[in-house]
Structures are given as C-alpha cells and as structure tokens.
Amino acid sequence: MSKQALLQPTKIGDLELKNRVIMAPLTRNRADNEHNAPTDLHVEYYKQRASAGLIISEGSQISYQARGYINTAGIHRPEQIEGWKKVTEAVHREGGKMFVQLWHVGRISHPDFHNGEKPVAPSAINPNAKSFTPEGFKDTVEPRAMTTEEVRLTIQDFKKAAKNAVDAGFDGVEIHSSNGYLLHQFFNKSSNHRTDEYGGSIKNRARILFEVIDAIKVFYPENRIGLRLNPSLHGIFGMEADEETIPTFEYIVKQLNNYKLAYIHLSEPFNDVSDKDFLVANIAEHFRPLYNGNLMINAGFNQEKGNQIIEDGKADMVAFGKLFISNPDLAIRFEKNAELQDWDEDTFYTPGKKGYTDYPMLEEN
Predict the structure, then answer these.
(1) Among the options 181, 198, 356, 359, which is catalytic?
(2) 22 lies in which domain range?
(3) Tell me: the pLDDT tens digits for 174-185?
(4) Active-site residue, 45 included
(5) Which of 128, 257, 114, 125 is nearest to 193 (CA)?
(6) Lower Cβ count inside 10 Å, N or C end of the chain?
C-alpha cells in the first residue's frame, strides 16, 4: 500500500511533506474563553492529527471585525498567539507541518459580534444567511459597505495576522478567499456593487486578493503562502453565480502563476451545479491546465478518489475534512488500508472533548 499516490512525499516550496493527505481547515468552535485563544484541547486535537502531510488550521479571524462565529480561535491577540504557539510546537514535535488559515467572514456575521454595529462587506447587500452567535443562529443583516480606506486597513489586518502567525510558529499561511466570506464577496458580482478600484471589472473585483498576498509576503515568502478558492459556489451564503463567475476565477488562477505560492486549494462544488451551464462541475479537471504550481483539491474525497485524482494528474494533494474529524490518524489508516470511523455531526460545533479529541487512534482500537 505504500505505493498509494496519497502517501508519496511532496514539496510545497521549500517544505518537505511526508505525504499528500492534507487536513482541511475545519471550524470546530472550541475556543470558549474570553480571549478566543486556543487551549490545551486544541493542542491535543492537532497533535493527534500530525500524521497529515500538512495541517491547515481552522479559520482563524484576523481581527475583532473579522468574527462571525462563536468560540473560533483568532490570530490577532497576544493570548491567541501564545495558544497557537503551544499547538504548533506540539505538531512539530510529532513531525508534522502546519499552516494557519487567515479568515475574515465579512457579511456572514451579526451585530452581536460588533457591539450592535453592522458587520462590514464590499457592499450593503444582505446575504440572507445565518450567523452562529452566542445566542444561537440568527439571521444576517444588511452589512455596511466598507470605505476604500477600510479595505486597505483590512489588507493591513491580514498582514498583521501573518506576522502573528510567524510569532506563533506556523510553517505558513492559507488565505481564506473562499466559501462566501469577505474576499470571495469581493470576487462575486452579486455581493460586490462597488464603484472604486475594488469593484466593477473582474480585475478590480480580484484586486484585494493580490494586495493581500503582497502584504503577507513581507513576513512569509510566497512559497509559504497558500490560498483557498471555491469557484462553483452557488446558492450558499447568499453567493449567486453568473456568467462572469468562472471567468473571474480563471483570471485569478492564471494571475497566480506570477507568484511562487505553496499551493492553491480548490473546492469541488458543494452542491449539484450540473444544471448551471455557467458553472464548472469538475473543478480540478478544469483548473489544472491553467495553473503551473501545486494544486490541492477537496470536498467529498475518500481514499480511492483521492489516490485516483493524483494519479490522473489533476491534483497534487487532497484535503480531507470530516474524515480527519473522526480519524485522527487518517494517513496511517490509509497506509494500512484500515477501516475508517464514522463522524458524529452533532458534536462538530459543541464545546469540550466529545467528538473532538476522543476519537480513538488505530492502535487504541
């Protein structure tokens, strides 16, 4: 079984990865303390999963303004940096590598997180979604459109978060520019009605992403920066795709060839888009010819499909989410062709160790 494509080592930039089994970023809402800082529970959770070729942390908010979910571990306070430092040290002791995912939710938030003020977004358009507040899920509101100066300040927040990530010992960063959150909101015509240099044309709507990369690379070289994109997201978090959606992502991916990034991390569609002739149903197959660097793919993969897509040359790595929740030693289980444990969705976002650190390792069964 050692000849499985998923288990072959690879390089991202100057980092050697022991396999291509990547732990996807997973929101788990366990930072239930006043500072929203990682705890010893986080240390144990990530340490258990260090057999991954690379761990990508849960989305970590870059500022107070970036929040939209309860108990998510940020990367903008000293207490958070110290908490993450314990996590990265534990992962490194186990021989693992770890990137932090830098996150700003934009309009997928609620005034409860902002002292009653509206959350910010590219434009004042309600996504008509739900925000996970301390009082449970609440309807989103119409956000406040960011000024041009606020856009630039937010880019600086990404830069500060990258500096904090260096201090916390992360091997690199992944920019969360996906799944209907802030940067994705800039890309999409349905959520971006701006008339300044960050709105209008495809080039302008994509501009913020490249300015974020340029800001972050002051602290991490390009080959320690990854980013996540979800080109065919439609009907989720208020994101409505149209005839410019795929051309926008084609432009972004082609432009990324001008950087020497660690990887781009693409998601296959989260729902059926086969009846949408302006969207792409097979993301890796479509975007692989457009990108010269490392391509990571996720959403709905198992061991067999993961091996196959690498063997077919459509991706270099595969990120697994739910399988890593219930199988902390997923790469080892793949190596031994062992049975996989089922996950419990009822404990994905609940406090404590249940459904978090209590899934047994293979040798414990």
Answers:
(1) 181
(2) 5-364
(3) 999 999 999 999
(4) no
(5) 125
(6) C
